[in-house]
Amino acid sequence: MIQLLEPRWLLPIEPWSVVEDGAVALEDRRIIALGNRRELREKYPDAHRTVLPDHVLLPGLVNAHTHAAMTLLRGFADDVPLMTWLRQRIWPVEGRWVDPDFVTDGTRLAAAEMLRGGVTCFADMYFFPAQAIEACLRSGMRILSGQVVVDATTAYANGSADHLQKAARVIEQYRDAPGVHFSLAPHAPYTVSDEVFVSLKVLSEELGIPLHTHLHETVDEVEESITQYGVRPLERLDRLGVVDPHFMAVHAVHLTDDEISLLADRGASAVHCPTSNLKLASGVARFADWLAAGMRVGLGTDGVASNNRLDLLSDMRLASLLAKGSTGDASVVPAQQALWAATLGGANALGLGHLIGSIGVDKSADLIAVDLSDQDLSPMYDVASHLVNCVDRHHVSDVWVAGRQVVRHSELVDEDPAQLRALATTWQERIRSS
Amino acid sequence: MIQLLEPRWLLPIEPWSVVEDGAVALEDRRIIALGNRRELREKYPDAHRTVLPDHVLLPGLVNAHTHAAMTLLRGFADDVPLMTWLRQRIWPVEGRWVDPDFVTDGTRLAAAEMLRGGVTCFADMYFFPAQAIEACLRSGMRILSGQVVVDATTAYANGSADHLQKAARVIEQYRDAPGVHFSLAPHAPYTVSDEVFVSLKVLSEELGIPLHTHLHETVDEVEESITQYGVRPLERLDRLGVVDPHFMAVHAVHLTDDEISLLADRGASAVHCPTSNLKLASGVARFADWLAAGMRVGLGTDGVASNNRLDLLSDMRLASLLAKGSTGDASVVPAQQALWAATLGGANALGLGHLIGSIGVDKSADLIAVDLSDQDLSPMYDVASHLVNCVDRHHVSDVWVAGRQVVRHSELVDEDPAQLRALATTWQERIRSS
């Protein structure tokens, strides 16, 4: 059965163009054709047609870094710096509450929020990844499941060897699951030893999957590394041979020119999480410089506990604005580049650029339609500018993941909002009373 | 006829509290009581009751700086610096198109967008202010109408004397109109001479209304003033005696410690427009330092041509985030302070703090209800944090200005969305073809 989606505007992202009165043909999970509406109607006369009269159709957004289950801690701790936030607020509450149910329910809520906001794929980093994967299989969302590794004992595992064994088991169990992809996710240079980084690097190469870690998020992290290891974290990891095309550095707020060149030269990726970096007062990443150096880049919301939402549209807008304000150059990160980072840029960083991130023949039908008929979006001189600067997540009307429609008229097809709210409230009462 | 609004949470703003199961009693245009729901029901047994079961009720937001009619230029010129933007894009298109109809229609669209987004009062600065006032009288929106004065010839008037005469006429004509307030609005130090600033200062004191001007928006502006006048713009105006409690400095991106002290000492106000300042790469105002110095502050969207929306909730969130990221201190501008700036702070800056900006007895019933039942807002540990960090403008469900309900179920009571869109499209086609 062939479907034709017929948007007023079609934005394939790569190659860049804005096609008026376009169409995309889907068969099963894949895109089989795109282009002019009349030609596609002639080619597929029996297709099921969905007209999107006031809509722009673009690839689903890629949230290149989050901790989905932490959605249960939305707004739990605000207005405190990273280390206080982690050590005095987040780690204690996680220690008390994180278990398989927390991850199942938190990820289900997160997937609901992300799908409604046009995010069709996210890079996750959290404990009990099997539960997160199950939540995504249920919701129809694509996940890059990060297998967390730390040296310490967590609610999930005891030390790095146990974390690694569990990682291997999860990857083995879900390797053929549809829409499920993997990364190895050492938490950060300050919580993971050299030996573990090296063994993860070997494994990531063997499996051909990303190695996803927090890096250079704060000045303190960099200074502590100099004290402990004599070098900055990135240099330490590079000496270990870890910095290669599989390497994904999350945050990377504090990078020197040389470090930007190094990441670009190694073909590594960096993920910009602008809201989280501002909220925790970590600083402002040099996003425009990353792009100018030809670094591979994606955008992330980070977890809800430091955002406080999973709204990549809003982070995309902020990334563009912040780059202009922090460089003093209003021409950097124009709309087209911001849209690229939020879609194909992120997909490439996750090692999934062959499958998602743009609308192309043989790619997966991970698509979103944004309704531009709202009076608050009028007038409109440029579709791309509107997507970055004017559109809110509630303008996202329809979402497909691998050809399956998961959002229709801005509501989830397979979830009951009242049930989701009840779930969140149950956890809220539990956590608040603790 | 007495009305009781019965929200799940009541946020009067001043004094600060979050009242659960609260109520506010309105009579005609005014608030006559607020507090505990049961007590107010007993006191006013015959009141018409509106239950807001999942909502927070707070004062309407105050947009302390915009150019409403420029809504017709939404996204017309992006990704260029301020002076290029002004001189090569905005001024030419304004020169071609700005007339009374442009202002009538543009302000009508702007008022619609602002009201739906919870803004009940805005400080405007644009040509043909009588048309903007008429649009607001029609839409039920409160306006501080800025009477633009520049030395040059504009579509509106020929030189400062003519601008001033027209200002006096508009103020005379609308002085008793409900919900209409005035400011004098010399465009900027680089477009207005000393003599004109002095005569405006005298007039603002005589009328008891604000003197609203762009100030220290860019480094270039400051440097040009040093070249031309030998001093920075603020010092020039202070020497003229202009900087007093009526003085409202918009943008104030580039202020030294001494300049912040000066504005605080003089009892002057400053308006922070974070999105516009980033978008035009003007820089980041020292908002946290303003607050620490005890300066009077408000928040503004600026015009849509540099934002590209009139969404004060989003600017409030950005103001809080940006203050943390730019100072390196995550504790600055917490939710409570951000909410204050967006309501009472702005009202004070506009000289309207006695009338609006908080929920208090005898104040005008300018109120907004925000529906917190959306699953994307769950769970919730802190109402104030959610308003700043999680809520989008489409969560604003009901809006009252001076006791009159203008938004219900997130839609305007007195406007037809299809008509507004048609209006915007007509201008879009006209402007695009020029």
Provide a descriptive summary of the structure in words.
2 copies of one chain form a homodimer. With about 425 residues, the first copy, chain A, is an alpha/beta fold. Chain A has 2 domains: about 1-60 and about 365-400, Roll (Urease, subunit C, domain 1); about 60-350, TIM Barrel (Alpha-Beta Barrel). Helix content of chain A is about 40%, strand content about 25%. The first copy, chain A, has helices spanning about 35-45, 80-95, 100-115, 130-140, 160-175, 195-205, 220-230, 235-240, 255-265, 275-280, 285-290, 310-325, 335-350, 385-390, 415-430, and strands at about 1-10, 20, 20-25, 30-35, 50-60, 60-65, 120-125, 140-150, 180-185, 210-215, 245-250, 270, 295-300, 365-370, 395-400, 405-410, 410. In chain A, the strands form 3 sheets. In chain A, strands 1, 2, 3, 4, 5, 14, 15, 16 and 17 form a 9-stranded mixed β-sheet that branches. In chain A, strands 6-7-8-9 form a 4-stranded parallel β-sheet. In chain A, strands 10-11-12-13 form a 4-stranded parallel β-sheet. The radius of gyration of chain A is 21 Å and the shape is globular. The relative contact order of chain A is 0.16.
Q: How many strand units of chain A?
A: 17
Calculate the terminal CA-CA distance of chain A, rounded to whole Å: 52 Å
Low-confidence stretches of chain A: none
| General form of chain A | globular
Radius of gyration of chain A: 21 Å
Write a compact overview of the structure shown.
By secondary structure, chain A is of the alpha/beta class.
Q: Can you tag this structure with a few keywords?
A:
Urease, subunit C, domain 1, 434 residues, alpha/beta, four-stranded parallel β-sheet, 2 domains, TIM Barrel, nine-stranded mixed β-sheet, homodimer
